[in-house]
Amino acid sequence: MLPPALARRLDDGTDTGAAGLPRRSFLKMTAVSGFALGAFPLLAEAQAPAAAGLKPAQQPAAFVSIAKDGTVTVTVNRLEFGQGTHTGLAMVLAEELDADWSRVRAVHGSQAIAYADPAYGMHLTGGSTAIKNSYTQYRELGARTRAMLVQAAATQWGVPAASLATERGVVIGPGGKRADYGALAEAAMQLPVPTQVTLKDPKNFKLIGQPTGRIDAAAKSSGRQDFGIDVRLPGMLTAVCQHPPVFGGKVASVDDAAARAVKGVKAVLRVPLHNGGEGVAVVADGYWAAKQGRDALKLEWSDAGRQKVDSTAQLAAYRALAAKTGHVKYQADMAPLAGAPHKISAEFHFPYLAHAPMEPLNCTVQLTGRGADGKAKLWVGTQMPGLEAAAAVRVLGIQPENLAMEVQMAGGGFGRRGLPTSDFVVEACTIAKAAQAAGIEAPIRTLWSREDDIRGGYYRPMHVHRAEIGFDAKGKVLAWDHVIVGQSIMAGTFFESAMVKDGVDTTMVEGMRAPYEVPMRLSAHHPKDNVPVLWWRSVGSTHTAYAMETLVDEIARATRQDPVAYRMALMDAKATRHRAALQLAVDRSGYGKRQLPAGRAWGVALHESFDSVVAYVVEASVENGTPRLHQVTAGLHCNLAVNPKSVEAQIQGAALMGLSMCLPGAAVTLKDGVVEQSNFGDFVVPRITDMPAIAVHIVPSADAPTGMGEPGLPPLAPAFANAIARLTGKPLRELPFKLA
Predict the structure, then answer these.
(1) What is the set of domains in the chain, with CATH numbers?
(2) What is the percent of the chain with per-residue pLDDT over 70, rounded to a whole number?
């Protein structure tokens, strides 16, 4: 979710080691959002040296709980929404703790400062950073806890701590003495926390690097796992909100008589929305009554002063902009373009895309008391609990210390549960506050339907690319002029000053040029349109990888070169991880050695995002005019794979989401300012019959892990497209695919 370029910006000027909690970026962003340290005592305390010289994010008490029966509960500083973070970070801590893995559990942290990202200083699940940024942190937490347990045993037995060993949740002493962690935990947690600890040599890892089943697998596969949508509180009511059909529209008139007559409806409330618009909320005993009440509303809307986007007209406008050089990101000499012996002129179209997580958006709010002395508790699955807490405090008008939050398991997000506006949390708090003012004293769960989110949510921006490339008979690129048109996802947010430079939103152009050594002039236009946009799994790489990898492949075909050999030659000399990933995929797929069935072709693509490299070699065909993907072989370089089983699952899921971009109907379009799609009937997602066989192979490495939640998505669509182009002789310039 978090763009790689933003991750690099957050890293600038901060202490990214586990020994220091960064401040500069966190202070800058939270001040802009109204989330100031002075207003949050826990945060202010975190900026002062702790008694042991450690920051809250380094102290085991907030992260490790050991019960008397030896069960170890690890508190994880990231939202678990399918990516396996609860298992991965628990494995990292358990490795250094020498815990018995069969007795390890994981729970969510809260908005407390201890659970902020140790590299960025803000609460964040995104940008494929969970393992990458907290790897050393959780290793040290485990090592500190182990050292305290060992010292407790040493004190109890009257022996030197150095004479003791640990294994599977037990401290072992001279003469065969043994003490279970559960028996030592209470005494251990009273001891000083060691500031310096020695971490294991990776060659001695027993858990890290081993394919390990997910902690939450049994609960999720059996239907026992609760998510945010499953929160049930005594007397709880459910609210649904009718949003304006045109973004930012307001209510002109309301006839709610029929809605109030629906059995179970408690209130109908006009509420302001986060974007300056207005909605009408229906509060009822349950979802069905609330939905029936909403369906019975008779509403008239005012969209005065609001742009009504039309996709056809918008595409024409973007194409016109793409014909002109925009704000320049990379500069290069374009003089050789005119006289180049071979040229490619290409235009690409990419539509708006909805996130469409399986669990619809929801947030439950319980208010007690009123005014500044009031208190609130939120139950929500969020990627940014700190920012959501700040938004809730602002909307509810309460003191920060009077807000409690229980982060819930979430059913997917892909960026939709982590956005600067906190839209669905703001809406839930606004409705709860309005309901309280109307005399309702009950917890209220605000629930979005799938239609609410697809019609009135946030989207991956629409983009148009134009490329003019000149090259010689050997495929040497002489000049590459590339223009991208699309809305800025950073404009208007507190990230804008860091991420929009010289008129270019760096998140939109990330993934261009590298790892290839080509003279490229890259420029961008950012039109302003009345469509809310947001990062989407792998952010800018969702479209830049497609343009780059299909164009590189097209040059290889035009010069009659093998696409793998051509890429290997074109890559920068330093791109050793790229070459290793690509070669692994080639070797394991049988590319160039195995005869494919008639009607099938190979497709190749690779891309780096979030510091990891993924290469795909695919087999595809065209059946009755429809592209079909049969086999995907992945070679990836993510440095040390903490849990290869989770890495494999992430590649499989990301590849499937990449495939979704290719399927006819996988687009969000607008007419007269209104989104035309509403659910999976008209916003297409892959079905099980679309799923290819996927084999995942990891380049061995002992280096610190890099991100894996998103890198598997970008190269899938171009690899698929390159295979189809080899079959049809025509490049595919548009997503979703159109062969006609």
Answers:
(1) 4-221 (3.30.365.10), 230-305+361-447 (3.30.365.10), 324-354+459-728 (3.30.365.10)
(2) 93
